[in-house]
């Protein structure tokens, strides 16, 4: 039992959490825990260390945002570009089955780290329909003459449909209404470059606020539902152990969307999502979805994902993040018991909410013949919504352990959350 009075056990014994990252202890049988994610992490460690590609939160439609930073590319003499291509595909494979967005930060590409034209052509061919189908937006930030010429050269190879997904972005503030800039791992040199561009644009007038500016803290209204802590919601919504947004969206999906193919994978209108958030934050008491125009359950699904990802701290807490990343180093036969021991560390409100969500997702998975959302697919979607690091960004390689941890919770939810279900 933790300090909040919460209790969760499997069997009679207590399990000591496994060593933190950096400890020297290892299982005696390496083959027992060296799974695909661990092998991939080892194979691509020399590339992942640069942080060239990172996942960082969601856009305003609830889609994962993948950031590619040209300034983090090392010299061509140091980088194996064929291996880089394999790493990019491995990283994107975790997201291409669902809708996602890409932000490409072009500043920092120069003669020493610029990939060859032949490599770019090969890369475009390698990223086939599997990768392009669910890519909803590709933002090319700080484009130069080089990249515009390059796009013209590739024009015969680029389909009209894919071309519509690409947008040139001259200044970071231009995408502030579709992407949460404060969640993006934007390199400092890119921020400095953006600031200089904005200054040049506004020599004679007040410049638009650039991405490096920060708002003064604003005290949230007591009716606020998005972007506030679980403690805040519990204090200001007496009688609700489960946040209103979570209750409403799950209730709606259970009644109207369990058979919807692509549930939680498809996006919804960004305008409709903003309207939902506005109504909730204003304290609207009437069942929210009767006031929003939509014709399928995807808006409810996107709203649920957006709520979870906009929490100031993830449901699984920052405290457990490093332990979660270590799950692949645990022998498979003991992983469930380790997960149980970690869940005991959660604050009471976090555990109650996590149980509610897991019970619901088990119901969704029971309809996977129709909605195609198996435990595996649900883990990919919800893992990044339940756990992330304090700096908001996460290496794509870290998504493997996070998804594995989520998969274990889903597969063993009846054991791990043995109390009577509220779902």
UniProtKB/TrEMBL annotation:
One of its GO terms (molecular function) is GTPase activator activity. Pfam families: CRAL_TRIO_2, RhoGAP. GO terms for biological process: negative regulation of endocytic recycling; small GTPase-mediated signal transduction. SMART domains: RhoGAP, SEC14. InterPro entries: CRAL-TRIO_dom, CRAL-TRIO_dom_sf, Rho_GTPase_activation_prot, RhoGAP_dom. SUPFAM superfamilies: CRAL/TRIO domain (SSF52087), GTPase activation domain, GAP (SSF48350). Residues 1-31 are annotated as: Disordered. Residues 43-198 form the CRAL-TRIO domain. This is Rho-GAP domain-containing protein. It comes from Ciona intestinalis.
């Amino acid at each position: 039992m933790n300090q909040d009075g919460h209790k969760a056990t499997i069997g009679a014994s207590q399990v000591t959490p496994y060593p933190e990252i950096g400890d020297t202890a290892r299982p005696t049988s390496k083959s027992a825990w060296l799974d695909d994610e661990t092998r991939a992490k080892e194979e691509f460690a020399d590339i992942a260390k640069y942080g060239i590609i990172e996942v960082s939160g969601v856009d305003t439609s609830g889609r994962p945002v993948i950031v590619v930073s040209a300034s983090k590319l090392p010299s061509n003499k140091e980088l194996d570009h064929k291996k880089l291509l394999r790493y990019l595909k491995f990283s994107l494979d975790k997201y291409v089955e669902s809708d996602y967005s890409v932000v490409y930060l072009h500043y920092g590409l120069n003669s020493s780290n610029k990939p060859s034209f032949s490599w770019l052509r090969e890369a475009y061919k390698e990223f086939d329909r599997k990768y392009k189908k669910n890519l909803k937006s590709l933002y090319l930030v700080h484009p130069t003459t080089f990249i515009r010429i390059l796009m013209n050269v590739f024009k015969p190879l680029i389909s009209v449909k894919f071309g519509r997904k690409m947008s040139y972005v001259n200044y970071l503030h231009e995408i502030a209404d579709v992407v949460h800039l404060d969640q993006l791992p934007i390199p400092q040199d890119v921020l400095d470059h953006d600031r200089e561009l904005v200054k040049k644009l506004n020599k004679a007038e007040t410049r638009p606020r650039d991405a490096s500016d920060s708002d003064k803290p604003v005290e949230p209204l007591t009716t606020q539902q998005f972007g506030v802590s679980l403690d805040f919601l519990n204090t200001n919504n007496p009688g609700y152990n489960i946040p209103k947004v979570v209750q409403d969206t799950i209730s709606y999906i259970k009644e109207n969307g369990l058979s919807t193919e692509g549930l939680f994978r498809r996006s919804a209108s960004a305008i409709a999502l903003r309207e939902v958030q506005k109504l909730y934050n204003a304290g609207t008491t009437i069942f929210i979805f009767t006031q929003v125009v939509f014709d399928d359950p995807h808006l409810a699904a996107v709203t649920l994902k957006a709520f979870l990802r906009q929490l100031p701290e993830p449901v699984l807490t920052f405290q457990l993040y490093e332990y979660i990343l270590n799950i692949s180093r645990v022998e498979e036969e003991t992983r469930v018991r380790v997960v149980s021991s970690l869940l005991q560390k959660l604050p009471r409100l976090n555990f109650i909410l996590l149980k509610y969500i897991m019970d619901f997702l088990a119901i969704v998975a029971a309809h996977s013949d129709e909605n195609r959302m198996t435990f595996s697919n649900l883990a990919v979607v919800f893992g990044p919504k339940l756990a992330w690091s304090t700096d908001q960004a996460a290496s794509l390689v870290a998504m493997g352990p996070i998804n594995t941890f989520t998969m274990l919770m889903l597969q063993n939810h009846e054991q791990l959350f043995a109390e009577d279900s509220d779902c």
